[in-house]
Amino acid sequence: MSGADQVDALYQEIILDHYKHPHGEGLREPFGAEVHHVNPTCGDEITLRVHLDDDTIADVSYAAEGCSISQASTSVLYDLVHGKDVTTAFGVLEEFQALMQGKGNVEPDEEVLEDGIAFAGVARFPARVKCALLAWMAFKDAATQAGAGTATDAFQEGR
């Protein structure tokens, strides 16, 4: 088995682990905003809630149905943004989005994305990119609705 094959196998293992043992699953209260997103291409669905405490993502809770990629991506999202300040969380979102839209040509930053690097191979399959991004786009909408807009405006202006 080549080094690349070993990495792909490890990434598949990470995705399957998050799929089988999702982190942060279940809808919780309190929450500042709730959104429902559907991927019409494949039927994946998510209802996602965001609770802010000042400029901190105090909680992200969700109920989701779909393929292993969308489910695992949601679990990874929870790990990467829960407890972070809004600016950091939106920075992680931007990094994950760049990875997914890079068609397999973006080198993931493991320090920022942690288990999210496992989705690097998914970026080579355009039909699956929407699956991986479903929860992230729902998070962006819910966080903005919950009042993260001022922090994300500052993030955008700082770029």
UniProtKB/TrEMBL annotation:
Pfam families the record matches: NifU_N
Q: Which domain of life is it from?
A: Bacteria
Residue stretches making up the NIF system FeS cluster assembly NifU N-terminal domain: 11-131
Which InterPro entries does the protein's record reference? NIF_FeS_clus_asmbl_NifU_N
* Name of the protein in question: SUF system NifU family Fe-S cluster assembly protein
